[in-house]
Amino acid sequence: MGAARTHGASGAGRRRVVPWLVLGLWIAVLAIAAPFASNLSDVQRDRAVDYLSASADSTQVAKIQDRLPGGEATEMVVVYHRDTGLTAADRATAADQIAEIASAHPLTDRPAGVPSEDGTTLMYPVASTEPGQDEEARDALVDDVRRIADGGDGLSVEVGGTGALTTDAGEVYNSLDGPLLYTTAAVVALLLILIYRSPFLWLVPLAVAGIADYLSMGVAYGLNQWFGTSVSGQSTGIMTILVFGVGTDYALLLVSRYREELRRVERPYDAMAAALRGCGPAVLASSGTVAAGLLCLLAADLNSSRGMGPLGTVGVLCALAAMLTLLPAILVLLGRRVFWPLVPRHGSTPKPRRSLMNAMGGSAERRPRAVLVGGALLLGALALGSFNLPGTLKQEDSFTSEPESIAAMETLAAAYPERGTQPVTVMAPADRAEEVLAEARDTRGVERAVAGRSGDGWTELTVLASAPPQSAAETATIEALRDRLDGSYVGGPSAQQIDLEDTNARDTVIVVPLVLLSVLLILVVLLRALVAPLILVAAVVAVWGAALGIGGLVFGPVLGFEGTDPGLGLLSFVFLVALGVDYGIFLMHRMREESLHGAEPARAALTALRTTGGVIASAGLVLAATFAVLTSMPMVQLVELGFVIAVGVLLDTFLVRTYLVTSASVALRRRVWWPGRLSRAPGKPAPAGEREPVGV
After folding, report:
1. Residue with more model confidence, 513 or 398
2. Is residue 644 a contact partner of residue 274, using CB atoms and an 8 Å limit?
3. Model's pTM, two decimal places?
4. CATH (one of 3.30.70.60, 3.40.190.120, 3.40.30.10, 3.30.530.20) for 403-498
């Protein structure tokens, strides 16, 4: 009696103390992370070269420019334009303003105006090393040039060029943090209210996701400081999306199982412990799969892709830690009343409801092969749309709205249709500068080449191609320069785009097989079979192809995008494979548990769909909605990535998981578990008290 009372007292004490200890630990962790999280924006870099490979020619050019006297030059083009033709007063105004710019800032050379043939436009190339590597000083220089270069009365003045474009892009990326976070939180809150039908419950997982996001920012800053992990606006935005999307998915699974346990167990603490034992292993396995898939991006040569791998993994792991520790502690402290008005009473039984998953499972059971073939044909037909994807995205097409630098580029393209307006930078060894300059001038497609600054053993050459920027002819000129100018590096904005496309192509060849192999191995170990993992991997690859195909039908014809980001294929593949397999784990793991309990294979598949399908559907909606937030951002790259992943998640949730995987499992029966023991003989029923790992 006394021992029982002592044990009961200690158990009651643990129930009271443990949640408070977990809460206190999280407060301490956040206090430590706060100084790091607040500094993340300071290390964010969004120059074009920050996204490139460290070994790319254009990256080497930027690095050498940083070591030259004054550092990298900020290059701009001041464009004066009047639709009816420039007047003498317009040209005088332009000359006076350029002179004022030259007196206010040290320029690399004296600006000379280049008039267009039709007389409507006058452009002045302007370059200064005044800001060096200081991004704030560069932005201040661009702003001051724009202040001085002022039009009016029919004369338009626009400041473009690489310096102005970098400033405009930086402003866009810096403006993403707030709207992206608020929009994501609002979307998740709305969906949680609809799912939980409670005025209070939705606040808890949303607040925990916000805390996880703040922690991930601190960890991301630490990775940058300790390991040099690159941080860009794109990678931090994706990290936030993953924290809220994946974290909310884990919360849905845990809260659903906790609600179920509250009907069976009297005390919330004990109910939460049972819920964690039930769904914790599957959540850990799925998060491990997502993390492994994202970490494969470390094999990429492109800085932006390689940096996104660790940051995405940080987001997933911070969300996992918060949802398996902080969320349970808060829910236990709040007790049953957090579910009001649908409070799960101890000993109650939920009312049976008609289930969409039951209906889907019924059709898969009656005609599994027909459903499987029909679904495969549908995905294949959708994938054909990928042939309609627009070509490579150009710099001037990368914004959904038009900043001034893009307007200037469009004015130049219209006024100078047959000539280059964007310089190509060549870094030549100083002792061979004259020889390299002569070879550059003799290269086909080069209109003009001049020598500029020298230092650190290098001389900077400015080459102007005769073809328009980022045209096929200019690309051929840049490639010819790289072939002819041995020992020199060829860079500049157009060369950066070429390097971006080439590096993405190489990364795709390396990373895609690595992702497939790592995910397949994890699934084989987890499911103790080969056929089931192959089905899951084939399904997510088919979803990726179909999602890209839908993008091809929408990007150009509907949204009017002029190009596709070179990294879209690789990044969407990594995210859709990792996240799609994540949901497949919940379904297949439950199917395996049902088989171990002695269920006939077809019945095990249908039971798994019925019991996990609702949570998977809810989680898929939340994840798709969070990635869909990216489609409201002002960068075409983010819109395209968010669209493809959101569409892919919806296809995976409502077609592949519910119909195709279930149909394949019903059709293959025990062969789905080959060569594991479940494929050879009926599984031995588990003890009656053993509980399944995932429940709804």
Report:
1. 513
2. no
3. 0.84
4. 3.30.70.60
